[in-house]
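Protocol step 6 of 9: fold each sequence in the batch and record its structure tokens directly after the sequence line. For illustration, a two-sequence batch is reproduced in full.

Sequence one:
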Amino acid sequence: MRVIAKRTLREFWLKHADCEQALKSWYSEADKSEWQSPNDIKLEYPSASLLTDDRMVFNIKGNSYRLIVKINYTYQRVWIRFIGTHAEYSKIDATII
């Protein structure tokens, strides 16, 4: 999968250093993956949540942070749509962000 864009993650971990390693690990794993469906993701990340429109929510660093991505399985692309604290996540509509 091609993750777009790592810069978004980097900017976030510069502000929240406690999640740097967790985000680097997620990025590395996603970048090497060849997910064909949400089921493939759930096998690797059982706590990930499927939303509408091919969006997934990943719990980062023990659910301290939430990462929302939109995935195009055909073209093997992952777009980062949101990264934030659990409290920030609670204030958004994850299905449209």
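Sequence two, same batch, same settings:
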Amino acid sequence: MIQIEALTKRYGTRTVVDAVSMQVERGSIAVLVGTSGSGKSTLLRMINLLVRPTSGRVTIDGEDTSGLPVHELRRRIGYVIQGNGLFPHRTVAQNIATVPRLLGWPRPRIGARVDELLGIFELEPAQYAGKYPHELSGGQQQRVGVARALAAEPAVLLMDEPFGALDPIIRAKAQDDLLEIQRKFGTTILLVTHDMDEAFKLGHHVGVMSGGRLLQFDRPARLLTHPADPFVSRLTGTADRSLRILSLIKAGEAAEPGARDGLTVPADASLRDALALLVWHGADVSAVTEADGTRIGQLTLQGILARGRAP
């Protein structure tokens, strides 16, 4: 668990992070959003002491980070930045092995961990371990960057605009990869983005920052239905709020009794996707199925629209 208590950063008379307090539960993903200059990246960097706080403190699983040697702290926290930050003169395997080598892991353990992570990220070790970053696509480079951050099995992963340089299709795949990795390892993740759709897709909780202050830190649905102030309301999107709400609800959660033949929607699809499917086919009802084809109920156009209305 990451506990942030009245964390503040000043440069002279300018306050860039203003007494921020928040708690990121162990094994969850928290996302910080806000306009440029809102202080979200500075807040992130104070957690691993890339930026020293002026006041306040950070504890990880109850341990005050200010009392730890900086090199030790940073080896315990994975860190991913936009553009991946890979060492261009090192192979993929050498990049991923960076922190385990610094920690003195035996060579067989390092090799096994590198192969494991390459496999998880769908990069065949025999094909990719010996390649250099310039031989990879942008999406592959980003996957290697995340793999390197996870190599030493950190409990915490910090990510600063990690997918900002990727095109939309590769970005969506990278987001899905991150969700799968988080489910597999249970890593606690704090991620910074300017993309509200990305924040709502990834975050169990989302924090909205402006002028160095944390305006609201809450579940995505709560941000949409009960914004703390007008700025939060504008940033989360007044015009398409109903669609954002539908994107947070899975078809399996909203399925009603009944299972008509014909059009089907996967249980793990969002209601936003289900609505698009119904509109495209000019239908008003579809069955909801599990991955094995088992029908668990149905969705109606009227039922979906009701879910998207303000409470």
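Proceed to step 7 once all outputs are recorded. Observation for sequence two: The first strand starts at residue 2 and ends at 11.
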